[in-house]
Amino acid sequence: MDSQRNFLLIALAVISFLLYNKWHETKNPVPSTPAVTQTQNTLPGTSTSNTGLDPVPAQQTVTSTGKTIQVKTDVLTLTIDTVGGDVLDADLNKYPATLKSATPFALLDDQAGKQFIAQSGLVGPQGVDLKTSERPHYKVATDSFTMAKGQNELRVPMTYTANGITYTKTYVLKRGSYAVNVEYDVANNSGSNATVGMYAHLRQNMANAEASSSFTSHSYHGAAYSTADTRYKKYSFKDMKESNLSIDLKNGQGWVAMIQHYFAAAWVPRDASNTDIYSRTVGNYADIGVRLPNKTIGTGQQAKFDATLWVGPKLQNQMAAVAPHLDLVVDYGWLWFIAKPLHSLLSWIHGFVGNWGLAIIILTFVVRGAMYPLTKAQYTSMAKMRMLQPKLQAMKERIGDDRQRMSQEMMALYKTEKVNPLGGCFPLVLQMPIFLALYWALGESVELRHAPFFGWIHDLSAADPYYVLPVLMGISMFFIQKMSPTTVTDPMQQKIMMFMPVGFTVFFFFFPSGLVIYWLVSNIVTLIQQNLIYRGLEKKGLHSKKAKS
What's the whole-model pTM score? Predict the structure, then answer.
């Protein structure tokens, strides 16, 4: 197999990969039904969780029904409703909504048609969040809380008293952290036992979930969960409409999340064995959450419930510290075991050079350098195959159409000449997973969002606005073809090979700049390696400049 056919295989593999992404988008369409304001006071149907717990309320209002308060740290700005204590808005202060925008990115948002909020409450016989119309009106000392300079922790207590029971809901935020602890303290002075349990879920308007899979991105937009037995499992809006989740976290380890490109929100229950994961849809809203088991509180006693709300970018190290496997929401696909180390290496390089574009260039040289033995074996095998072409042609003319005999004599010739006919294919097969894994690693790295390179490239996660990088990539691909010797004589194959750089250039018009930089630099490294390998082969008599023509 010669290098031209290898390039054809690469093209087919990449195009197939992109077509798969598009197929995945059409297989999991986003619902387009209009937003509704339907309310229900029980779970759809009448079933309860597999822990035997009573259901959580199916709908709390998704617009503020009371006074709101604002809570601000160095990285987060939250808007909390005093009715129920839900988080209606979460702005990420370090991440602008668009490039060079003064407006922060809003991960949680209570705007009509865009609802994505984090709700939590207490249910059970003495729960205060059983019905929409009877959610607690919490009292708060002030309308705004701001983390002061030098302050490392900010606590936001909210209190409500009914029937001799005091319910205190406290948000605990820490400097530099996107993990928000939500604590419930229940003090029972009612004169009799009280039984309550906590729930926490994420609610999203499904019409707001844009189709994330495309020809340039494989990102998933939907729900996911984790248990001790299942480290990471997607549960799409389509899945949620077809069946409600009910999974018992027997050892209390697990979480639920709503994820999208670069960002995620998640609920992590704390110290609660037999917590139940649930999901449901109400009209056009989808919920995924956790239901902690009930606790019976004797009169004069107190009980505590708590869970952690992650609301922020997909920062792997921080997420892994919040909960086991929470970092897996950074979706590297089935090649995660390659992509994750590549991302770690990229981050390590960036720590030295301080520029993500430059880090990608260095990473490309490192990866292609590590694969140099494979590349050399590939071209050496191709050169040996070219040397056998005259003998193979003479054999074909001598044997004619006897395919069985032709196959036998070809294998004998390969054995005599010590040539592996698949020697040019195996290195390519081994390289493709690395190429695709790096594609995923770069595409899922929130660090590249709005990260500048040099000159006109102000955002490595966006396409080149002037198409300079894709054109350079196409030119480099053309030179690789010109340098590569070929025995292809079929006119159709020749036309395909001539068109391939143009086709790839058009594809890369829409790719993020960071990915195009990788492919461009990879092609440049290929040109350098080809030149070195061919010079070595010429010295051994395995390659001639005449063969290049």
Answer: 0.81
